[in-house]
Known about the structure:
The complex is a heterotrimer.
Chain A: E1 14-21, E2 27-34, E3 57-59, E4 65-69, H1 78-90, E5 97-101, H2 123-150, E6 158-160, E7 163-166, E8 170-173, H3 174-181, E9 230-235, E10 243-248, H4 250-253, E11 258-265, E12 270-276, H5 279-287, E13 290-294, H6 303-313, E14 319-324, E15 338-345, E16 357-362, E17 367-371, H7 376-387, E18 394-398, H8 414-426, E19 431-434, H9 437-442, E20 450-458, E21 464-473, H10 483-488, E22 489-490, E23 493-494, H11 495-498, E24 510-516, H12 532-549, H13 554-561, H14 567-579, E25 591-599, E26 602-613, E27 616-627, H15 634-648, E28 660-661, E29 664-665, E30 684-689, H16 707-719
Helix pairs in contact in A: 1-2, 2-3, 7-8, 12-16, 13-14
Chain B: E1 2-8, E2 11-17, H1 23-30, E3 49-52, E4 55-58, E5 72-73, H2 82-93, H3 103-116, H4 122-128, H5 139-153
Chain C: H1 2-47, H2 50-53, E1 63-64, E2 69-70, E3 83-84, E4 87-88, H3 128-135, H4 146-155, H5 157-161, H6 181-193
Antiparallel strand pairs in C: 1-2, 3-4
Helix pairs in contact in C: 1-6, 4-6
Amino acid sequence: MKHTIRELGTIDRRNFLRVSAAAAGGLMVSLYLDLPTSAQEGGQAPPAKIYPPDAFIHIRPDGKIVIQVNRVEVGQGTHTALPMILADEMDADWSQVIAELAPAADVYKDPLIGVQWVGGSTAIANSFPQYRELGARARSMLVQTAADRWRVKPEQCRTASSIVYGPGNRSVRYSDLANEAARRPIPDKVALKNPSEFKLIGKPVRRLDGRAKCDGSHKFAIDLDLPGMLIALVARPPVFSGKVRSFDDKEARAVPGVRDVFEYPLVKGSAVAVVADKFWIAKQARDRLKVDWDLDGIEHADSSRLFAQYKELAKTPGGVALKRGDETAIDRIPESQRIVAEFEFPYLAHAPMEPLSLAVRFDGDRAEAWVPAQLPTWEQMATAEVLGLATEQVKFNVLFAGGSFGRRGLVDSHLVREAAAIAKRVRGRPVKLIFTREDDMRSGYYRPMFVHRVEVGIGSDGAPLAWRHVVVGQSFVKGTGVAMEAMLVKNGVDHLAVEGSSDSPYAIPNVDLTAHHPTLNVPVLSHRSVGYGHNSFVRETLIEELADRAKTDPIGYRLKLLNKDAYKFRAVLTLLNEKASWRTRLPAGHAVGYACSEYNNTACACAAELSIVNGRPKIHRVTVTVHCGLAVNPLTVESQFQGGIGFGLTQVMPRGAITLKEGRVEQGNFDRCTPPYIADAPADIDVHVVPSTEPPTGVGEAPVPIIAPAVVNALYHLTGKRYRSLPLIEL
Amino acid sequence: MATYHLTVNGQRKEVKVDPSTPLLWVLREELKMTGTKYGCGISVCGACTVHLDGVATRSCVVPISLLGNRRIVTIEGIGSDPVGRVVQEAWVEKDVVQCGYCQSGQIMSACALLKANPKPTDANIEESMGGNLCRCAAYVRIRQAIEDASKRLA
Amino acid sequence: MVRSLLLLLFCLACIVVSRSALSSNDFKGREARSDGLAAWQQVYSVLTSPRCINCHTATNYPQQGDNRHHHFANVIRGPEGNGVPGLNCVSCHQSANAESTGVPGGRNWHLAPLSMRWQDENDQPLSSAVVCHSLTDRTKNGGLNAAGLLKHNEEEPLVLWAWNPGRKQDGTMRTLPALTHAEFVAATRQWIDAGMPCPR
């Protein structure tokens, strides 16, 4: 999804600040936005709700500055980058800054999307102006207060490190101004810094949550401990949408510490919850539970069967995603000048290191939830709905997540629905619902499996002249009725399933791109880099095959083929050419492969050096280049690129996939669904950012799709084979 | 249910749990020490790594009944160890963590490596850290932090 | 003349008699050897059980499971067969089976040294002849003589473990070797008594 960053002043909005003094003193500045949802998204803006207290900055009397971050931290670094932006404009003492995860509230909604969320690599892109303005407004009010106190003009004052300095060596700390500043009117217009004045933005700043994550003190959702808290584990149907026919809980209830065992509805089907005092007690009880599952009349999806069906479907055109030029052009290209390629992509599990967990407490007329949610306001509504409450009656706390990759961004809010149903039954005590690793891995909501069938007709100049492409795979949006659906699904085609192909940066004159979206009994979801994860693989392996056929350097081939307006791609490929100069000096038995991709206005490219060791690809080094506009925190950008590439390797690991056999997920833990360990990931990943002063764009997802195609492109030179079926079980 | 006496980070603790309870859950739920993490429950990911009498051990598969009187050191206590402190500093210096969930285990494994071998080669690092999963794939900086810690320990 | 003939006949008879005597001994020797070889095959049938052979690898990793797949989590042999710092065998394998968590255990869990490998580098079991020669080679078998071998098979804790291999995570018992421990010891004894013959 593309979102244009609009400059301050051109956004059509009314905005005003509400300032309230906290009970303990201090200045709380809140930015209350009453925005229509971005016009290009076309959605309906929900009426703004007021959830007191909504605040972004709290200057405590002890000098600490607490900044509310409107995004759950899943590892992507927004917990540091967003406060950096605010603190810079505010001239706050960075060593005194504390970041907190904002709870669900309208005021924390993404200013362009209109919903509180983490996703689409939008955090920095969409909240950069927002957090700048917050910081600038706070600074302005503090300066005004000091100026009034000293009876001087604000222009005679300057700020640095949480201190206002006035004429004649006068100075005063922000914390000493805060109470008074809180009573000031809020300025409507405020000047932002010139980028040359940035002290934090653009600099490598270490994470605020770094130390706590190294000494065991940092708390994730699964670490939550509340007085009176109970633990719930759930016996789920072995086939999606299965129902409980009956269950025998006699032995389960006999385990000391078990509180309750009961059936409750899932989004589809039903399950049996075991509620106990502790995790191990719940687990022992669940192991002794006997459930008779009703699995009749539901689809038993099977990966092998589905791949065969998808391949058949891919031979026929689907809903139109893109038609350009002459769709029959390919038929006039001689077969010797055509490539016909079929690609297979399996289901992928997100498998974040922290298995799913969340907690809810229901007290009849109110409730509280503790959730590592990517969609807090959305899930708050779902929680309220299940509990029969008004949304305002649900206090929704956002907790840190041990990774997500999209798994915690739940369109159907299935997790809070489950936890709320359990809490409703338990009543009066918080219940933490925990998924074991097996529960998590078998719970569905996978990156869907896909088949692509592509016919490329090659022109006499070696460039692709015609491109006929059918994509087959589930959509996690189509048919859900969510607001995004109208925006994303056109002609029956979900944009998220074809991005990377529909928005290819290459100038191919004749394109016929269509898609089929089968409806299956397998829940699917967004997965880090979404459609690019498979579309970029298809595109970048075919492009490199064309370059190889034309005996042209693959970077040069791409540069020549780029659309004129693909300036970010041009920049990253050009920089890659420079930074990967090692590619001409490879040792014997080594080869190099390339790929480029994008996500939400960030473009990137890589060169990967491989050899084959013990029958497996060994990646010695990857050089990556990225254009993300202004890199707000270069340390974050580098970590997301190194990590995103490591994550993207999951697709090529021999046991990286999820497979279904007669309705049952074959994998349950990391022994059978095995992501990359340290030896599987490149030891060296050097990241180079194209210098830019353009508005910052997100980096969480852009790197993920580039490594798999680069790897197979290199492998071709080592084995002579084109790999079009993932994962790479054998070379 | 049985009573067990443990020594955790130098302190004596008493717990009353079923003998089959893995040490991981004794730490997390009986002692409220949540720094040691649950990632898989079958010792394949390393997030639960503690030291038992100095040996890096995956606490998710050790039932409390098999603990004996081995002394436990967890992520909450490794900072009191001279190697542990240096490793944690290196981890912060190199800005290793992303989501951070695996990092307690990574650090405990790294400490075991550096205590046995203060000058590990790249191969040593890859072998000793080879069983610790990181879904964020922060592996590049994990290597750098171990190299950095090794230099500081020299 | 008659006397020479009688002497010749006597000598011939002696030769015939002694030849018969030789065949009889020879027959007994062959019988003993074939009994010994049969006993060895029994021993070999235990050695190639996954419970034993999974740790007698030729590679730098152990195997696990009845299908003898490459052990998960990248555990490796290490310089002394007990893993590497941070990832020792005892990082997971305790001194007894952990029934509640499905991890087998026994005292001093470690890999057999490479000299005691019973597989090739493609994880295929070595032939009965090769394993037998390796087992009886004192430069490879840890210096064990016949008595030592018998004692090892009778008493070594990790050997005994094979008959008490514990439950897997799913609660099912691990499969046992082809013979009982008592049968294994008896076969070992019989093989030793026959002079530890190895197939050619």
